[in-house]
Amino acid sequence: MPIRTLLVVFALLLDCRILLANQHLTPSSTIPLPGRGLVLAWAPDGRTIAVGGHMIDKARRNLRYDTKLYDVATGAYMKAFGSHYWWVLALDWAVNPYLGEVIADAGDDHSCKVWHPSGRGTLSTVRGQYRVEDGALPGIRAISSAGLLGINGTMLALHFSPDGKWLAGANRDRAVRIWQLAPGPHRFRIVKMFYDYDGGNVTSVRWSPDGRSLAVGDRRGRVLVRAFDPAHDLWDDATVEDFQKVAWRGIPYWMKTHLDAVTKDPIWMDDGHKVVWNVRWSPDGRRLAAVGTDGTLNVYDASSGDIVRREHTKALYGLDWSPDGRLLAAGSADHQIYVYDAADGTPYDTLVGHDDLVTAVAWSPDGRTLASTAGGQLHSPALTSVVLGPDMNVRLWARE
């Protein structure tokens, strides 16, 4: 072998050794999916992961718009919940003091469904079904056979409040919805909406760790924080009842004619970031991170909105803060995952392995594993009917 070739090989091996020495997260396992994964949620005990997206049931040869559960240790498929009329685009999993352990999912069919993960799961493929025997929450099922209602079109994010009393949802109709989950006369009904015409589609919503604020990202490139005080912000009984009568087609008109009930100035706002796809609070609630298609990862002082740090890369979509607050992971349009030291913004790792835009990243509850999926951009015209793609996997990365 020529000396020049030997030198090139030696240099490549040296580069690989340096890369491995600097890699803090390593590939752990891959879970194959029957379609494109778009959203992820870990079980509170970290043993199971839920995946929503553009899925298909190959055995039955027809589409399944549902949330699928996988065993993290083995990668084995366990069960599915739902059959929405369209793709699952919003997902959350929590132990709720009023409902027990529950999964909430929503998509493009005007309903949000809440499931007990201990249920048997969906055994048939009838779209729109919501069966108690499958795991549907009995209380909601008694009110509506379609789940939580009051939705106009597509839900893009869901998040249970830390105290379990509320469920917040981000919607394409420019509004954030809040359902009451705690017992009371308006249980499982919408008791507040925050509407903002200037913001366009609401793409992300997250409760602060203390439950007193909501962070929002939208399609107009804005990041904002609103205070939430149930004593002052919740609708009165008459407004709750009035909205309850509105069919989904009439919701935009209702909001425009009830601006006093649905508008509220934010505590602070930052704009100019193209589409903001995800916002996440730090575990201590002191900082807020946001990513968008302008390729910036912004870290804010949560109380003032001042930018603490800004990282620049390709367009970003998935985002999550490690439970210990030390790391920020962001999924990129260039198929990579960028992991940063949250204290000073130092690059911590770059994870390579996906073959599509990384839509979602999620740390396990113990912070030892990062999950990621790359189903492509939410609501891209190319994905409206395309189920199969270049990357149909959930990848797990082990943290040292």
Give a short summary of the structure.
Helices cover 12% and strands 40% of the residues. The protein has six helices and 28 strands.
CATH architecture: 7 Propeller
Q: Name the poorly predicted regions.
A: 4-21
By DSSP, the count of extended strands is 28
Main sheet overview: 5 strands, antiparallel
Q: What is the mean pLDDT?
A: 90
Please identify which CATH superfamily we are dealing with: YVTN repeat-like/Quinoprotein amine dehydrogenase
Taken as a percent bin, the fraction of beta residues is 35-45%
Q: Can you count the helices?
A: 6
CATH topology: Methylamine Dehydrogenase, Chain H
Rg for CA atoms: 21 Å
Structural class: mainly beta
Shape: globular
Q: Any idea how many domains?
A: 1
Distance N terminus to C terminus? 38 Å
Describe the structure.
The chain has helices at residues 3-22, 138-143, 230-233, 237-244, 251-256, 259-262; strands spanning 25-32, 35-42, 48-57, 62-63, 67-71, 77-81, 90-96, 100-106, 112-115, 155-160, 166-171, 175-180, 190-195, 202-207, 213-218, 223-227, 268-270, 276-281, 287-292, 296-301, 307-312, 316-321, 327-332, 337-341, 347-351, 360-363, 369-373, 393-399. 12% of the residues lie in helices and 40% in strands. It has 400 residues and is mainly beta. It has a single domain, classed as Methylamine Dehydrogenase, Chain H, CATH 2.130.10. It contains six helices and 28 strands. The strands form seven sheets. Strands 2, 3, 4, 5 and 6 form a five-stranded antiparallel β-sheet that branches. Strands 1-28-27-26 form a four-stranded antiparallel β-sheet, with no helix packed on it.
